Amino acid sequence: MRYQYVVILKKNSERATDLLSILLCFLSAGCFFLTALRSLDSAHFKGLDGWGSRIGAPASAYFITAIALILWAGLIFNLLSKRGDHRVRVRYRYLLVLAAIGWISSTSLPWVGLLFFGVAFLEYQTKRPLEIGFHYDRIVINTLIRQRHDWAAFNNIVLKDGLLTLDFKNNRLMQKEIADDEEEDDADEEEFNIWCRDRLIAADYGK
User: CA distances (Å), 138 to each of 193, 198, 206, in order?
Assistant: First the structure.
């Protein structure tokens, strides 16, 4: 559906989610590396030159070590990218999914992997833009469960100084900051408010 207006809301929970993702991925990589070390098997043998020792490792040790190295490399890459430009939005969900695979396939705590899948989904939802689409006959709020409302459900809708206010007729009030816009223009807010007022009047008259 093509909306007449789409308002993107500001989200303030990204930093906390990033810190949680970094901590979980870093600790997981450390646990995987220690698990690989513990799986090493040393054996002594007698050769022509005397006694020697041989260290062997199962295939799972190489697999989980590779995951640990990829996690550490991914964290370093994301941190350097963010340090170079604070406006860059990095993603940790792929690293979290990789960590979940490592927990499920190569450790004695596979249930921890399910928690990591949950955190990866949370990270996706946190980084997903929260948008409100305004159409001639409805308003759609793009939350986890999409909400659709008729214009008749609102008393008033106002965008003022970067703050969007949705005043519902059921006494619910929703106020959210909109995302920063490098091309801010007060005329856009005025145009939006006039258009919304016209739609609300039309809804009251059943048009």
Answer: 16, 13, 13
- Phi/psi of residue 7, nearest 5 degrees: -110, 125
- What letter represents residue 34's amino acid? L
Q: Which residue has the tokens 């370093």?
A: 76
Cα gap 181→160, rounded to integer Å: 14
Q: What is the mean pLDDT of residues 63-90?
A: 86
Distance CA 76, CA 22 (A): 10
Sorted by sequence, the CB contacts under 8 Å of residue 53 that are 6+ apart come out as 42, 43, 44, 45
How many angstroms separate the CA atoms of 48 and 89, rounded?
60
Q: What is the CA radius of gyration of the chain?
A: 27
DSSP single-letter state for residue 180: P
Structural fold of domain 130-204: PH-domain like (2.30.29)
Q: Which two tokens stand for residue 116?
A: 């990591």
Q: Tell me the pLDDT tens digit for each residue of 1-35.
A: 688 899 988 877 678 888 999 999 999 999 999 98
pTM score of the predicted model:
0.68
CA distance 169 to 161: 23
